[in-house]
Write a structure and sequence with these properties.
The protein is of the alpha/beta class and about 290 residues long. The chain has ten helices and eight strands. Helices cover about 45% and strands about 15% of the residues. Strands 1-2-4-3-5-6-7-8 form an eight-stranded mixed β-sheet, with helices on both faces. β7, α8 and β8 form a beta-alpha-beta unit. α1 packs across α10, α2 packs across α3 and α4 packs antiparallel against α7.
C-alpha cells in the first residue's frame, strides 16, 4: 500500500471515496475501514502483513483522508451503502475489518447484505449500551461543521490545527509514531475538508449507534466467523474494563462462530500498534471458514 495515497477515487452512489488496493488480484478479498476521523494509512502496518495472501482494499470515508468532500452527511445508511458498493467492487463476499466507529457500518452491512460478508474482524469496536437519541441534529449541524472546516482551510489555520489534533489524539490512543511520513499526515489532516468531516462524524456518532440498535431488532446477524479484538490498555478503572469486556463479549455472541481476543495492555489504535494481532485474527477466520 503506497504511503502517499496512490490509490484512486471511486464513485459509490452520489459519493466519491479514495481507495487503495494491494495484493494479488485473485486472492481472498479484505475490506478495511478506519475509525472515527481515521485515514487509510492507519492500516498500513496491518496491510503489510496481509497483502501477500489477500487482496486488500482500504478506503477513506467521504471528506476524510484523500476523499473529496461529502455530498450527504455521515449516517449509518450512507456509510453502510459505501461499504456495500466497495464489497461488490472487491469481489464479494469479503472479510471485513473495521476499527472503532466503523464497526457500526460493518455490522449493518452484515445484517442488511449477508451475502457480501464471509467473515468479520471488529477491532476495538465502538459499542453503546443505550443509544437513544431524543432530537436528531447531526444532519442539520453538518453544514456548520463543513463551514468550519472550509474557514480553517481558507485561512490556512487547518495546516496547524489539523495535524496538532491528530498528534494529540494519537498520543492517548497509540504507543507508536505514525506509520507514514509526517508530510503525508500533514497533507491529510491539514485539509479543512478533513477537519469538517471529523466534526460531522462526531455529531453523527450517537445517531448511528441508535440506528444500529433498531436494525438489530429487525435483521439477524449472519452465522459467519466473527472476531472481536478488545484493547484495555487505555481503560483505567476496573469497572470500566469489565464493562468494555462485557460489551465486546455481547458483540462476539452475535454470531454462533464468534470469538474474542483481549489485549490487556494495548491502546485503542490496535491497527497501528498490534498489526500482528489483526493479521492473526484474519488467519483465524480463514481457518474457521475452511474447517466449516
Amino acid at each position: 500500500m503506497s504511503v502517499n495515497g496512490a490509490g484512486e477515487i471511486v464513485n459509490v452512489g452520489r459519493e466519491q471515496v479514495h481507495v487503495v488496493d494491494s495484493g494479488p488480484l485473485d486472492a481472498p478479498p479484505l475490506l478495511l475501514s478506519s475509525g472515527l476521523g481515521g485515514a487509510w494509512f492507519d492500516w498500513t502496518p496491518a496491510v503489510a502483513l496481509l497483502r501477500d495472501e489477500y487482496r486488500v482494499t482500504v478506503f477513506d470515508r467521504p471528506g476524510l483522508g484523500l476523499s473529496p468532500a461529502a455530498v450527504a452527511p455521515p449516517s449509518l445508511r450512507r456509510d453502510t451503502a459505501i461499504m456495500e458498493a466497495l464489497a461488490e467492487r472487491a469481489g464479494r463476499p469479503v472479510i471485513v475489518l473495521a476499527h472503532s466507529m466503523a464497526a457500526f457500518h460493518a455490522e449493518a452491512l452484515a445484517r442488511l447484505r449477508p451475502e457480501l460478508v464471509r467473515g468479520m474482524v471488529l477491532v476495538d469496536p465502538s459499542y453503546e449500551r443505550d443509544p437513544q437519541v431524543r432530537v436528531r441534529l447531526a444532519a442539520a449541524l453538518t453544514p456548520l461543521a463543513t463551514a468550519t472546516g472550509a474557514f480553517l482551510g481558507a485561512t490556512r489555520l487547518s495546516k496547524a490545527a489539523g495535524p496538532l489534533g491528530r498528534r494529540l489524539v494519537l498520543k492517548h490512543t497509540s504507543r507508536r509514531d505514525e506509520a507514514v511520513p509526517e508530510d503525508v499526515v500533514r497533507s491529510v489532516y491539514g485539509r479543512g475538508t478533513v477537519i469538517g468531516a471529523v466534526i460531522a462524524e462526531e455529531l453523527a456518532y450517537r445517531e448511528e449507534a441508535a440506528d444500529l440498535a433498531r436494525l438489530r431488532e429487525r435483521r439477524p446477524f449472519p452465522p459467519v466467523p466473527l472476531t472481536v479484538v478488545t484493547a484495555l490498555g487505555d481503560v483505567e478503572k476496573p469497572d470500566k474494563k469489565r464493562e468494555w469486556s462485557e460489551d465486546h463479549e455481547h458483540l462476539a455472541r452475535m454470531s454462533p462462530r464468534g470469538s474474542r481476543i483481549e489485549l490487556p495492555d494495548a491502546l485503542h489504535m490496535v491497527p497501528l500498534d498490534r498489526p500482528d494481532v489483526v493479521a492473526d485474527a484474519v488467519a483465524g477466520l480463514r481457518r474457521a471458514e475452511i474447517a466449516s
